[in-house]
């Protein structure tokens, strides 16, 4: 039913060894302009400011997720038996395309555009783009099927679980990939053991054999440590705070004060309008960096200063948010002429290593016990039980320019 490539294509990958492609529709997607755009979107947003080798892209991550989904549907016996050929191709394409809607600077830009990358992903897949045409030329209705998997609206819940749950190909890839490119070890875990112990319960529920519990415990802890050591690093959050402040300033000034120093691609963002897909296609990190370079010469001193801070890594300092200290710092900033609307940010993040969503939720991690019972992970692991019943770790920080007293 699905056309094969003339020969199997392989792409070398530092995490998975090789990415294997033998379906023409997959190869066509990879070579599309929209997918190639992901080369111009860094995987880790502001974290590259902290970890100098974290220059890897959404392109590489998306290929990695595809490869893991391919392995799941072809090499894990229970999954291979549970899915039809069309379902296997659909979920592989969903893994490949799950991040096609990401904007610059990873999740930080979602706060700027006020739109999630999932929204843009489904638009790109379904709104008559190059991606839509490739999918529909392969099989009528395939674009909707792929979008339904990504949006958790497909008829078979197993497909969505493979790419978006608490034990999925997306997390499997980004933990290992991000650990590798940041030079950290926190994200390492035993992927092969997890794949080996995967099973399908009742034809539609992804589970782990009891013998795989230790590997899943290690995976959960790897995710927890990566969030606190990499994804929530305060220096990266400082960079993203300035990014938000820069666009806030432009929005507050409005289009009436736009001049030759603001590139047209920023206009819809400043005006708060829906961004067309043609504009979104061009809105990558190369474009934004050019735009920020232009803004360093903007006549508004706040815009030019914030743009220089982004370009030259002149970031805000930070400290724990404490009421008494916050008041003192804010007063010092005012005395030194800083407008607190653009030079003061508070950010609180929290992370639990694993949170059961509901008693029967598809997103829980389920364990198939030796006696045939299906238990939610925290009921099968003393370590996970202790983690989710302990205090939630959070980090409440304030970011501001360093003021010399």
Any descriptors?
single chain; globular; 22 helices; 405 residues; 9 strands; alpha+beta; 3-stranded antiparallel beta sheet
Structural commentary:
Helix 17 (285-295) packs across helix 18. It is globular, with a radius of gyration of 23 Å. The longest helix is centred in the middle third of the chain and has 20 residues, at 234-253. By secondary structure, the protein is an alpha+beta fold. It has helices at 24-30, 33-37, 58-75, 77-82, 85-97, 108-113, 117-126, 130-138, 142-150, 157-163, 169-182, 191-196, 213-231, 234-253, 267-271, 277-282, 285-295, 301-312, 323-335, 340-343, 377-380, 382-389, and strands spanning 4-13, 17-23, 198-201, 205-209, 317-320, 345-351, 366-368, 374-376, 393-400. The strands form three sheets. Strands 3-4-7-8 form a four-stranded mixed beta sheet. A three-stranded antiparallel beta sheet has the order 5-9-6. A two-stranded antiparallel sheet has the order 1-2. The model has no long low-confidence stretch (mean pLDDT 93).
Average residue pLDDT: 93
What is the assembly state of the chains in this entry? single chain
Radius of gyration: 23 Å
Would you count the extended β strands for me? 9
> Helicity level, as a percent range?
40-55%
Task: Tell me the strand percentage band.
Answer: 5-15%
- End-to-end Cα distance, whole Å, is 72 Å
Q: Helices and strands in order, then pairings?
A:
Elements: E1 4-13, E2 17-23, H1 24-30, H2 33-37, H3 58-75, H4 77-82, H5 85-97, H6 108-113, H7 117-126, H8 130-138, H9 142-150, H10 157-163, H11 169-182, H12 191-196, E3 198-201, E4 205-209, H13 213-231, H14 234-253, H15 267-271, H16 277-282, H17 285-295, H18 301-312, E5 317-320, H19 323-335, H20 340-343, E6 345-351, E7 366-368, E8 374-376, H21 377-380, H22 382-389, E9 393-400
Parallel strand pairs: 4-7
Antiparallel strand pairs: 1-2, 3-4, 5-9, 6-9, 7-8
């Amino acid at each position: 039913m699905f056309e094969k490539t003339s020969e199997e294509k392989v792409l070398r990958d530092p995490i998975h060894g090789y990415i294997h492609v033998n379906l023409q529709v997959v190869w066509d997607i990879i070579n599309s302009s929209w997918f190639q755009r992901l080369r111009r979107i860094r995987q880790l947003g502001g974290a590259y400011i902290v970890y100098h080798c974290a220059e890897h892209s959404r392109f590489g991550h998306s290929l990695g997720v595809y490869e893991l989904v391919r392995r799941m549907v072809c090499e894990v016996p229970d999954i291979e038996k549970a899915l039809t050929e069309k379902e296997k191709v659909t979920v592989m394409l969903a893994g490949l395309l799950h991040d096609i809607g990401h904007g610059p600077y990873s999740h930080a830009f979602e706060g700027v555009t006020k739109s999630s990358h999932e929204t843009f992903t489904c638009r790109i897949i379904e709104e008559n783009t190059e991606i839509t045409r490739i999918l529909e030329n392969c099989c009528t209705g395939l674009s909707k099927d792929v979008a339904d998997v990504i949006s958790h609206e497909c008829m078979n819940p197993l497909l969505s679980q493979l790419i978006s749950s608490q034990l999925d190909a997306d997390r499997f890839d980004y933990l290992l990939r991000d650990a590798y490119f940041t030079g950290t070890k926190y994200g390492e875990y035993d992927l092969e053991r997890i794949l080996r112990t995967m099973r399908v319960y009742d034809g539609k529920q992804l589970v782990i054999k009891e013998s795989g519990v230790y590997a899943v415990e290690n995976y959960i802890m790897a995710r927890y440590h990566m969030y606190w050591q990499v994804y929530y690093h305060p220096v990266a959050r400082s960079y993203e705070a300035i990014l938000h402040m820069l666009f806030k300033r432009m929005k507050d000034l409005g289009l009436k004060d736009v001049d030759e120093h603001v590139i047209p691609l920023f206009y819809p963002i400043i005006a708060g309008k829906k961004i067309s897909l043609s504009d979104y296609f061009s809105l990558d990190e190369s474009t934004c960096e050019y735009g920020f370079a232009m803004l360093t010469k903007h006549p508004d001193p706040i815009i030019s200063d914030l743009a220089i801070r982004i370009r030259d890594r002149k970031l805000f300092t930070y400290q724990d948010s404490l009421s008494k200290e916050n008041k003192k710092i804010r007063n010092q900033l005012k005395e030194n002429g800083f407008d607190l609307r653009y030079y003061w940010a508070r950010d609180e993040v929290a992370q639990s290593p694993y949170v059961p969503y509901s008693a029967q939720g598809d997103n829980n991690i389920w364990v198939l016990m030796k006696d045939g019972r299906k238990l939610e992970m925290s009921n099968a692991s003393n370590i996970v039980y202790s983690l989710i019943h302990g205090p939630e770790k959070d980090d409440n920080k304030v970011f501001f320019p360093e003021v010399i007293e």
